[in-house]
Amino acid sequence: MNYNRYEFSRREEILFHMGLLLIGILVSYLFYRNILGAPIVFLLRKRIRSYVKEELIIRQKSDFLEQFKDLLFVLSTSFSAGRGMADALGEAVLSMKDIYGEDSRLVREIQHMHDRMKISKEREEDVLQDLAERTGLEDVMDFVIIFEICRDTGAALVSALNKAAGVIIEKMTIEEEIREIVRRKQSEGMILFLMPPVVILFLNLLAPDYLAPLYETIPGRCLMTGVIAATVGIYGMIRRIIRVQV
User: Fold this and answer.
1) pLDDT confidence of residue 143
2) Which 3 state secondary structure label does DSSP give 150?
3) Given Cys at both, which of 153, 165, 172, 246 links 72, Cβ 3.0 to 4.6 Å?
4) Residue 219 and residue 221: Cα distance in Å, rounded?
5) Max Cα-Cα span within the chain
6) Residue environment code for 129-158, b if the CB has 16+ CB neighbours within 10 A, otherwise e
7) At what angle do helices 157-206 and 10-32 cross, to 10 degrees?
8) Rounded Cα–Cα distance for residues 233 and 193 (Å)
9) How far apart are CA 154 and CA 116, in angstroms?
10) What whole-number distance in Å separates Cα of residue 104 and Cα of residue 101?
């Protein structure tokens, strides 16, 4: 599995198009008081799909990284007991199943890696390198590099890997704290993003006659179109602000 890509399942594809149509209907009715403009949202289907996939990839990597942090604890314990990488992964399968269940991505990855090392007799470094390339995660790559250096130079593998695991775990903890701050800022930004449609909705419910000129005249509809464009622009600005590399 390549964690840098995401492909919709058939069910997700159906849900995506249904959600797109629902959004189109809501936006068209809220801003124009008819649903004839709903299909227009499908003109932006490719861009919206790319946004959705980007968010799913980020969530996919974040979930894997959180599980990988727990894996490092388990591997560290196994290394301290004198286990090699293949045997440590075999023990990790059982521990990770208890935590995340048999269907989690990490459990499947660990089992696959263990089989490649034990059954297919592939080099440990190659198997780990393959995982690092498929995830595209810096923390995984750092762990693999340290492991390769220790194996190639004959350094104290257990000690080095234990220290590396501790450093990587600490780094991941700090990164998670930064992401939490970013998530709070994202929530604040979403309030700004939702404010225009929410205000229009409340005015429609409480004082529909007040907004009538915006729906019944050409200048009013142009103004509503401008509000939609501004709202989309706010969302784009929020996305750029919160895309912080940690």
Assistant:
1) 83
2) helix
3) 165
4) 5
5) 80
6) bebbeebebebbbebbebbeebeeeeeebb
7) 30
8) 9
9) 23
10) 6
pLDDT (0 to 100) of residue 157:
63
- CA distance linking residue 84 with residue 81, whole number of Å: 9
pLDDT digits (tens, 9 = 90+) for 108-131: 999 999 999 988 888 888 898 899
* Surface-to-core class of residue 117, CB atoms within 10 Å of its CB (0-12 exposed, 13-18 middle, 19+ buried): buried
Which token pair is 9? 């399942």
Query: What pLDDT is recorded for position 244?
Result: 55
CA–CA gap between residue 88 and residue 86 (Å, rounded) = 5
Specify the range with the lowest mean pLDDT, choosing from 53-67, 85-99, 155-169, 205-219. Answer: 155-169
The token pair that represents 195 in the structure block:
């404010």
CA distance linking residue 183 with residue 172, whole number of Å = 16
pTM for the model = 0.75
Contacts of 63 (CB under 8 A, 6+ apart): 105
Strand, coil or helix: 173: helix
Cβ atoms 125, 151 nearer than 8 A: yes
| Contacting residues for 41 by C-beta, under 8 A, at least 6 apart | 20, 21, 23, 24, 27, 48
Which range, of 85-89, 108-112, 241-245, averages the lowest pLDDT? 241-245
Q: How far apart are CA 49 and CA 52, in angstroms?
A: 5
In the chain the first and final C-alpha atoms are separated, in Å, by: 24
What's the pLDDT score for residue 39? 83
Instruction: Note the pLDDT of residue 86.
Output: 86
